[in-house]
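Quick entry, no commentary yet.
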Amino acid sequence: MLPFFATCPKGLESLLSEELQQLGASELQETVAGVAFKGELDIAYRACLWSRLASRIMLQLADFTMRDDMDLYLGAANVEWERHIQEGQTFAVDFSGGNNAITNTQYGALKIKDAIVDRLSKRRGERPNVDKRTPDIRILAHLKRNQLSITLDLSGPALHQRGYRQQAGEAPLKENLAAAILLRSGWDKGAPLVDPMCGSGTLLIEAALMAADQAPGLLRPRFGFMAWSGHDRELWQSLHAEATVRATRGLKQAEPVLFGFDQDQRVLGFARDNAEAAGVAALVRFEQGSVDALVNPAEQPGWVISNPPYGERLSEFPSLLGLHQALGDKLRDQFKGWHVSLISSSPELLSCLRLRPEKSYKLFNGALACELRNYRIAEDARAARPLAEDFANRLAKNLKVLEKWARAEQIDCYRLYDADLPEYNAAIDRYRDHLVIQEYAAPKSIPEHKARARFFDLVQATMAVTGVPGDKVVLKVRARQKGTEQYEKLDRREQWMEVQEHNARLLVNLYDYLDTGLFLDHRPIRKRLGELARGKDFLNLFAYTGTATVHAGLGGASSTTTVDMSRTYLAWAERNMALNGLSGRRHQFIQADCLGWLSQPGADYDLIFVDPPTFSNSKRMEDSFDVQRDHVELLRLLSQRLRPDGLLIFSNNKRHFKLDHDALAELGLAAKDITRASLPKDFARNPQIHNCWEIRWSQPHE
């Protein structure tokens, strides 16, 4: 008997071992991502032709201890390569793994290649050729600790490449993983099978191949062993002919009821083409349809098996949450008594189904760790109870009050919810017909999985209460920010939205940054600036996107000066101003370190607004800035620009900030706390959202 090794995706080892045993293999030994076995050559051929789970079948040529590169060379040179590589054939060596002696896989492959070339040159007097792209013979070597194995690849292209896939949608399942999902689901080949999100049809086509008793390798034109010196052509042809007869007979006898649905007509076209190429088009019905419109197409109970999308980015989750919630509702309503198997890399998304799994399996889709969960829908399954009822009731109450208020105030953007209930720790802001949900970092005492589950419940309940679909919900995670972290880039959509705030038109970006370009809690301050600005020269320092400047300009300011370190935000400010017809020489935009700019001689102003960061250590600043430590110096510099009858409005967001009234008095300044008056209705529950003072000269000043 010959020694062989079969590789497979991690998590499929036991299934593969059972399959190989059924094919006649013996002395099976499972290892990580593979199974060693023994058998005659026909067993290896059957494995290449019939294995639905293996990635490769390899003939083991050598296995030896390797402590240095000389051991590697000599061990490889001892293999009788003349028995495996014919004259004139090309070969390639793939090397994986390593130890202290071999840390570079290219070097390991080179030493084995040298050993093969030297041996064959010595015995044949002719140097064999290497072809890394399309070799006749591919040699695979794997080094683990000090043990090296050298194998000959009998498969050629990986066995999951059945030969039927013409085209695929995004992130398709590999065919051997699809087969494993079907096996783990317990699907009865004679029972109906529905895939409500079938994509390019891999799960259904693999099911059809099983039902028709068609060998998964039957359509492949080439295997690696076909160029091997030890290849037995007659044996292979007889096994292939046997498989052809079985497939022909099986296709005629198969009566599976397989249904595939997808809302993307283009991807469904791929699925139909793939089924046609596999020869099983007659066994599968593909129809366009969304999960929301899913109706049970079968007359008897069966299996729902699918690979729902499970995006890797937080921005994709709202739509996916809604999709999984809708799928769970449809399963309970339409598929009572059915088995359900779903694979996902996100257990949280599967939890949104609100179904209790009977069994779960750890699998890998490439390098991505996934979980397959099997469910049974009860005959008396009822609609799921509303999610997060306390939260949903509070949000509905807030919505009713604030929607009416916002319309009266002519504002498109406002806060709907701000951690009103401690267990649902998030802020929800409305931007016209969009929502931005910001998850606050949970206390360390709350387990991460529990906080995550609550947040997902909150998101689903929010969409249900507001009626805002998932593609218009933006998720963000907000922790306490330092310096300019709130301004850092998160995405690159460059997707802008125009919103109204009283008489101002402003641009927001909901996706690319943690903050959107509009601090909602400063809305009354901006309105106040607009009321005060007529005929005044206005300075906006640490201006961000210039929204305060817009209000001052619309209020009739004689001139405006907008200063910020960021070129990006100054350009945003200019766009905001232009959107409101505010342009020309009387509106200046200055990119500078704000404290450095103030230190230089410059113009005086009647009205100044300053809203500095709590802390900043930007590379563009000479020194770090701490608003508690440095606010007196900041206000001293600003006082040098403040006209005798001028007004300075100073705001910041530092909790427990203490204004140094004594130091201001020494500067001749007096501060009036207007924090409470500057809080808008939608932030009434959070009096610590910001601090705000009106600062004037305490006595006539020249």
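second:
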Amino acid sequence: MLFGAFTNASQAMQTMDWAMGSISQNIANVNTTGYKEKETLFKTVLSETHTSPPTSQNSPTKNTATTGLDIFGVRAVDRTMVSKSGTITASTTWSDMAINGRGFFIVTPPDSTGAPQTTLSSSNTLYTRAGDFTQRAVNGNNYFTTADGNFLMGWAADNLGVVSKTLSPVYANLGQKSDGMATTSIQLVANVPSNATMTGATKTFTDTTSVTDGFGTAQDLTMTWNRVSGDTWTVDFSLPANPASGSVGTITGSPVTVVMDASGNITSPTTSASGTGFADLTFDWSAGPTMQNTASINLTSNKPTVQGISETIAVYDGAFNSHNLTMNFEHASNGQWYMSFTPVAAEGAVSSLTADGTAYTNSIPITFDGAGNILTPATAELTVGWTAAGAGSNTITLDMRKLTQFSGETNNKLGVKVIDQNGYASGTMDKVEISTDGSVMAHYDNGESRRIFQIPVASFVAPDQLDAISGTLFRATEQAGDMTVASISDQGSGASIVASATESSNVALEDQFTRMIVTQKAYSVNSNVFKTADEMTQTIRDLIT
């Protein structure tokens, strides 16, 4: 039994020595970012088995079977308190991050050249909650790295900010030039005033100088313009009545079809020798020496004035340069409008104008119901060909579903709430921020911002069973269970990535001092057990000798 005392006491001192090592490690790392406490537990272990001596010959129970006696010592069993979170503390470094929730940052060590790993595996993928990241320039990129040089992994985003769920090293290159984006869509949230002046469907003009009858007398020529569509009118010509004969003459070539562009300029007819915008008519007179003559009538000086309002928006061409595109709204009649588009100062031309799949020349008809809600169209599409070299052409989709017609404060102004287009100029990255969902947001000097990476977190079924590579770095094990890589926002319950903050160690210093006192006392008592057993051994030795 004395040898059991030696064994147990020596095992206990070795165990307490091991526990003191864990305590000293915890105390040494009390200020280490993301450090996880190492806790030493104690487990009994069989040290000796003794058989009781045989009974005396004079005993009534002589020759009875002997019994065994097991002697149990102690050994150390370590566990790392990985799932126990430390306190999140604000820092002054923008690249620092803390996980407010479950999970770990995913990191990989550099390859032999110091560059990020290109192929991930279970052996080179590690996990940490130490978010004190710094930047390291490698091969032209400024990567996020841990204090011990491991590269932070995340999901890269494309030019539209859409992430790919493939892990790659996270970087942000301040000062990097970024291409702009050509305008492809416009969101229109606005109100056209129902009390705006109307162009009307019919307009009548009188020309008193262009026509002379058979006697050479000037006659009034009446032109009646009738609206056919947003671009097209028909013009009927008539002469005054003759009280005696019923008419001073007849006209050949009437009516004339007239087409106007988005600016209200006549583009047809073009057949006259006088140029575009003239109507060639033949007059047969009822009296006079000259019974017939022809005349070219100037339609431009006798045309309806389009009653419209306009709004100009900046759009971007294929070279990411800004142009002004004017949207014109003409109030044709009650509940009926026409919309057209005009690039400023001959910088381009509009073509391929459609609305809800129907093609139009220059103007799109817009109709509203009696409650001021738009009936048609839901969307319009136009192509703008730019004249500048390298600018190319834009096909732009206009969302019109939120256009309304209510009474406005003025009759010549569009009630704009939002007119937003998705194009922008080229820019330089001048700032980077980390969002609560882990998005790495790059800000550019052109006013644009976009996500360039998203930082996911890896979660395990039993995180305390991860293999501790160090106090802050862990490797996946079978005992830790299945791993899930997801956005922190998928956890719900307010989980987030906290920027400019770090997670402190989860070591409670007062608890470690208590453990240290208890461990020291246990070591001292076991040393006394060993000393006492030694003294008893010496006494037995002296009795034998």
